[in-house]
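Example with several molecule types.
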Amino acid sequence: MLLKPYLMIPGPTAVPERVLQAMHRPMINHRGPQYEEMFRRISEGLKRVFKTQSDVLTFPAAGTGALEAAIVNTLSPGDLVLSVSTGVFGDRFAEIAGRFGAQVEKLEFPWGEGAQPEALAERLARDSERAIKAILLTHNETSTGVTNNIQALVKAKGDHPALILVDAVSALAAINLEMDAWGLDVVVTGAQKALMLPPGLGFVAMNERAWEAHSRAKMPKFYWDAQAIKKSLGKGQNPYTPPVSLIFGLDEALKMIDEEGLENVFARHCLLRDALRAGLKAQGLKLLAGDEDASPAVTAVLAPEGMEGKAIQKMMRETYGITLAGGQKKLENKIIRIGHVGYVAATDVLVTLSILDMALTKLGLPIKLGASVKAAQEILMEG
Amino acid sequence: MLLKPYLMIPGPTAVPERVLQAMHRPMINHRGPQYEEMFRRISEGLKRVFKTQSDVLTFPAAGTGALEAAIVNTLSPGDLVLSVSTGVFGDRFAEIAGRFGAQVEKLEFPWGEGAQPEALAERLARDSERAIKAILLTHNETSTGVTNNIQALVKAKGDHPALILVDAVSALAAINLEMDAWGLDVVVTGAQKALMLPPGLGFVAMNERAWEAHSRAKMPKFYWDAQAIKKSLGKGQNPYTPPVSLIFGLDEALKMIDEEGLENVFARHCLLRDALRAGLKAQGLKLLAGDEDASPAVTAVLAPEGMEGKAIQKMMRETYGITLAGGQKKLENKIIRIGHVGYVAATDVLVTLSILDMALTKLGLPIKLGASVKAAQEILMEG
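Resulting structure tokens for the full complex:
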């Protein structure tokens, strides 16, 4: 049976036709005026999306590379780093810091829950010597479908001087984040989520406090050195050869975000999340995250009793062409994750729900056909 | 709100990414060996799709041009032609014949119903002098969503010597048609329906009886002259410059049909039609064609009492990004037509039904949300 693929994973996400078209252009000189004009425009666009006046640095890299850049540009071996972790990606941020010699202390929360600001405040209150140099936060924990309340966590920090480093890889441009207004020192994202690009670009924005830290930071770096990027940025360039096609695509994706309006993009992600969750609940499925912490970018659904998550993924993919993500680490095979970040429309949610109905029915679950779609339609019509 | 466009009209239909990619190649010499090799392969592929051993002639033209070619290559001014018409496209075929001086007699059937073989048999029985030179049939009447039973109509012809000319523009490669086995003399189709291409190519297959008729046909022709096409085809070429990009796309589309299997393509169209109709009926909507004549390519739905067809189309398109077709001529504003021909999957049917639910609700119709999707899911899971 002919299938039309739907890629409903939390990255890489569907790339709009417009962006693909923009990428399909001949190479240009990355040291010439045409590139410079485009890259300056992109840099301004990135600032709007990060909601910052600081420069946003572009690295040819995966999001994980940009996380590493955030660490090595602001910290020194031996620094005490408090890692607020709510899942796989919080753990990874901590692991990078540890690998470069930071002394990492973890403030962990159960997978499927958001970080509690009170717990952070309590830990920092005990740090009377102000030994903690940085706090690592995850805006959207992709492994559990939880969005952490960054604003509340920063408030909980109070006047503690630790830097705030935020992994916003799966969040930025999907979930509101106000780098300057909220006082975030470093914010990191990647291309392949809400920026609607293929993977291959990482972004790091650093405010003045972060640049001050950079001047003292002793972790070794060459490729990730923010100073080199910033210097080139002044000339509308990159220090090392950029992936020109992705830069073409980024220019177009930022135009699309501007046209839709960033606040409208956020509202869309919330509406689609609400519709999807209503549909899943109408089918009696259990969601890993509660409504309070529910991510506008990815939704984790517990595999029904006695059913393997991978069996659902396989049925969705092979029989109906819908690709979902599975669980990671201790959640492997226990959940399925539905990505709805970036170039996602109401029709994608309706397709996913109606096909999930069919897949679960085929796998023997008693499903009320149509119930999930009805619940989603009701939410979508209000939106 | 971000919309992803779904083009659910009976042509031009959605073009698969693979075909678009294939078309996106540099021009080649249409008189060179690379073109010849490709065009010979295409010609064999077209024969398989037409289910004929006769040559299939390719014209750079709209489907209507190919209908004209069918007429002018087989008929002479003054010839008596019996046009079996079940809608707009049956009428058009007749009009072309008339414009070139044929004496056209219409055998008309109510719009929304298939042609009755008995009526054809009865008319031919009265033609004791065998004056009727050709019978014009429409395989799939796109304006009403009716598929005529070509095999039964040909049987009804019995041993009457009239040529059978079949407009299969919206049917070929979607609905089974066996040119040789059923004894069809001329079969016509276009690129932009089940062949999954952008518009711009028309096809005419002529059997030996049709070529005999060609040798006597007096209607004036140059561009449409089948003899010129056939002569060039012997060299793997076209007499006049072909639209090379469309030919690249055709090569790829025929590969896709071969990979899926032509019989599977037919089965898919039937399954999707059945699912769509079940969903529409579950919502209490009235369908123009009965189950017996229902087209696997396009479904016409009566606009609910007091509602304009165009209002439904507008709501579907502007609010939800789904483009449907409207009614033509006397059905204008009275029906909406949902195209499901060519590159169409189960997900397209589910999207169309769930969005139609929402559009009709917004237009004030009491809709049982989820009911249409449930009915379609039940059919799709059996398929």
